[in-house]
Amino acid sequence: MSDADVLLRAEGVGKRFGGFVALQGVDITLRAGERLGLIGPNGSGKSTFVNCISGDFAQHDGRVTLGGAALNGLKPHRRARLGLARTFQLPQPFNSLSVLENVRVPLLFSGQSGSATARAMHCLEQVELAAKAEKLPRELTQVEQRRLELARAIALDPQLLIADEAMAGLSHAEIDQILLLLRRLNAAGTAVIMIEHIMRAVTEFAERLVVFVAGRKIADGEPRAVLSMPEVEGAYLGK
Ligand code: ADP
Ligand code: MG
Fold it and tell me: What's the whole-model pTM score?
């Protein structure tokens, strides 16, 4: 991959909590517009990796660049301005703010010019939540809360969206809704890292698969080839 095609480059990313090594020596390079699935057993370091990339963990090993810009040391909102968006495994809305305000906040933080309200409404339309704009997050169903989490992430028109288990607990039809949303976003040019236990969703969506086991990357490649590797079947699918 030539440097010009590289969107995200993570080199030797690692994280320890006290004496516990949660993530070690992870190298991942992502092209602009690529759709990557990231899978692995619970506790294998997937969310830890996201937190290192997003800046939610300030301290970690390794180097991360986005579009050639060094991310190390930057706060999450600075990374968001550079085109990085993530969703949280557990939606983290501002509970006392309306659905619309929840989408406006990241826009205000990003220092975007123009009307944050109009842009926020546009995002809510994309996730089919416009009719609920004045509701509070707790008045939303589970899938609506996940769509709100996505709306907040896509408000900044990111170059890279990392969706951390955005489909957990959803029905088949609800999963399809989220998949459609991610596909539309990707078709418009956003690269997506999908972290997901729902294998149907991952294999339908991803053009490349990375597997983590016990804090290390054990596979990286074409999905069918990766899923048929004995060490992947043993560590993940056969568990
Ligand atoms: P995954 O997302 O793959 O399920 P995580 O990245 O959340 O896994 O966790 C990887 C490991 O790191 C787990 O053993 C988890 O308990 C540990 N861990 C994650 N975050 C913290 C933290 N803030 N403090 C201590 N340990 C943590
Ligand atoms: Mg996780």
Answer: 0.94
Position in ligand 1 atom list of the atom nearest CA 48:
6
Counting ligand 1 atoms within 8 A of each CB, the residue from 13, 15, 16, 17 with the most, and so the one to mutate, is: 17
44 alpha carbon, closest ligand: 1
Query: How many angstroms does the Cα of residue 147 sit away from the middle of ligand 1?
Result: 25
**Which pair of tokens denotes residue 221?**
């490649």
Show me where the domains of the chain are located. 3-83+160-237, 95-157
Q: What residues does the ion ligand 2 have nearby, CB within 5 Å?
A: 46-47
Whole-number pLDDT of residue 91 = 84
Question: What single letter denotes the amino acid at residue 164?
Answer: D
User: Measured between alpha carbons, how far apart are the two ends of the chain, in Å?
Assistant: 34
C-alpha span between 215 and 46 (Å, rounded): 8
For atom 23 of ligand 1, which residue has the closest CA? 17
Q: How many CB atoms are closer than 10 A to CB 233?
A: 12
Protein residue with least CA distance to atom 18, ligand 1: 22
- Determine the topology of domain 3-83+160-237 in CATH: Rossmann fold (3.40.50)
How many angstroms separate the CA atoms of 72 and 10, rounded? 10
- pLDDT band, residue 183 (cuts 50/70/90): very high
Q: Which pLDDT belongs to residue 115?
A: 85
Give 103-141 pLDDT, tens digit per residue.
Answer: 998 888 777 667 889 999 999 998 999 999 999 999 999
